[in-house]
Amino acid sequence: LNASCSSEASVExxxxxxxxxxxxxxxxxPAAPKRGKAAYKVVEKHADVAExxxxxxxxxxxxKRRCAWVTPxxxxxxxxxxxxxxxxxxxxxxxxxxxxxxxxxxxxxxxPEILKKRQIFREKFSRTSx
Length: 130
Hints:
Strand order of the largest sheet: 1-2
Strand content: 5-15%
Number of strands: 2
Helix content: 25-40%
Distance between the termini: 61 Å
Order of helices and strands: HEEHHHHH
């Protein structure tokens, strides 16, 4: 066994070169997605840009755009959270702390249950200084 510590040897190993100069394939491509019925469809906007469109729901007809995980049977607290808070940047320290505490509760509760108990969390941590 003859190992070299030269910089050329380490560069070649990083490039995936095998002895003899041929290139080895270190990574394989992910498998293509299976064809079948999907909850979404892809609509071509331009030749190189596509938009994913959620299925038409009563909320979408009323002008509200919601994520696919908000269904007609979704808890109302969760729907309100989605409509008013989901994806909105937060910069206030107290608000960030509240979201941190609520996220910690995910170890024991589901997000809809946490949102139902949100007022209790607010009362418990209202006197906490940040």
